[in-house]
């Protein structure tokens, strides 16, 4: 169904900003929206290769960007020191959000909002 070079396809995108192709003659699956009109399979795949430069789901990218704000505040703790890369890749977006929320709870902030010291034990000073 997805390898017919003579059929027309649509580039589709979901809420996590993940791309795929879908036969233009079929109804779109729930949660997916067409990006542009029907085109050849090759044109769809070329378009996806051009625009989908970061394969991580949107929720993971946003969670990691939010985690990056800790280093911007001067924290010595970085995510790569706390979680193995393979473990991080295997996490669902919900698991990643929960982990990042718990990490934020383990940081001590000064009155000005700057990070004073990472606090792995979760105890306040």
Fold topology:
Elements: E1 8-14, E2 19-23, E3 32-34, E4 39-40, H1 41-51, H2 58-72, H3 79-82, H4 85-90, H5 93-105, E5 107-109, E6 115-118
Antiparallel strand pairs: 1-2, 1-3, 1-4, 5-6
Helix pairs in contact: 2-5
What does this structure look like?
With 125 residues, the chain is an alpha+beta fold. It is built from five helices and six strands, in the order ββββαααααββ. The protein is elongated and about 60 Å long.
Mean pLDDT: 78
Question: How much strand?
Answer: 15-25%
- Rounded to the nearest angstrom, the radius of gyration is 21 Å
Provide the low-confidence segments as ranges: none
Number of strands: 6
- Helix content range: 25-40%
Characterize the biggest β-sheet: 4 strands, antiparallel
How does the overall form come out from the CA principal axes? Answer: elongated
What separation lies between the terminal Cα atoms? 61 Å
């Amino acid at each position: 169904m997805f390898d017919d070079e003579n059929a027309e396809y649509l580039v589709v995108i979901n809420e996590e900003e993940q791309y795929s192709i879908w036969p233009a003659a079929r109804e779109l699956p729930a949660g997916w929206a067409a990006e542009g009109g029907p085109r050849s399979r090759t044109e769809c795949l070329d378009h996806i290769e051009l625009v989908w430069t970061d394969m991580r789901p949107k929720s993971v990218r946003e969670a990691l960007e939010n985690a990056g704000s800790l280093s911007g505040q001067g924290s010595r703790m970085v995510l790569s020191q706390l979680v193995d890369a393979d473990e991080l890749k295997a996490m669902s977006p919900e698991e990643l959000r929960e982990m990042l929320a718990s990490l934020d709870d383990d940081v001590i902030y000064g009155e000005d909002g700057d990070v004073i010291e990472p606090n792995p034990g979760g105890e306040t000073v």
